Amino acid sequence: MTQPFLHTPVLQQEAIRLLTEEGGTHFLDGTLGGGGDTEEILKGDETREVIGIDRDYTALDAASERLAPFGNRFHPWHGTFSHLEEAIQDTGWTTLDGILLDIGVSSPQIDTPERGFSFRFDAPLDMRMDTSGGDPTAADLLNTLPQKELADIFWTYGEERFSRPIAKAIVERRETNPWETTTELAALLERIVGRSHQHGLPPATRVFQALRIAVNHELDELEAALKAAERVLSPGGRLVVISFHSLEDRIVKHYLQHAAQTCICPPALPCTCNKKVTFEILTKKPCTASAEELKKNSRSACAKLRAAKRTNEPPEFTRQY
Where does 29-137 have alpha helices with state H? Predict the structure, then answer.
């Protein structure tokens, strides 16, 4: 039996409602995880089918076992959700009625020490969501990237105010002693950052987040997936995205706002842009976890859900946002 991949989905009730309330039969769960969201989609209507994408074979195997009772209504696919069009083609579909993206790292990945996502455990600095390939690990980045590039990663992806001195210390240390473990990095961050300027966060939080995002190209993946969703959703199809930090949420918010705009010309000039409206926003403000959910799952505190409905307009391939 496959090792359980015990992940508690957040905002599940709201996500499934927004995803399926106008019906449809062909759905895609771009972040399959433990399969909890896909299970709810399939249970809701016996005519529904779901493609479940995950880059983590551990999650994919566990979810496939959990969803086996649904037979060929569930279609597992190993890869990243930015390649969702390939997953659709491999399944023999052409369009989708709904796409769900629950962005970020899952609880089992964080809580498995050898994955190296958490500074709570002494483990190799890995942080790859897909360990089956030869992609660079967090240790590889720390041991090879130029100092400026490391500082940019810590500032851009972690909003770490001590990004420059941290990068400098990392480069100085690796000249004689390459980086290998999470505790080594956490100790350096404790010394440089301290606890007084982190708003209650452990000093390693922001840098570990930044490294994880860089290792897995998470923001690039999200932007590519949003564009792909616009191309493959059928008219009336739903897009539901759950994010866990401001960088992700900002990308989703700005993308959908632009997609819903009727005109992007300067306000003082007559409209000449012929802007197409490709999404109708369904959530004026992002949905957040209820007090009841927060009691059951503290990790839902940062979650924000945004949803939109695809219009009849063809996509704009040269979008700027």
Answer: 36-44, 57-66, 84-91, 107-111
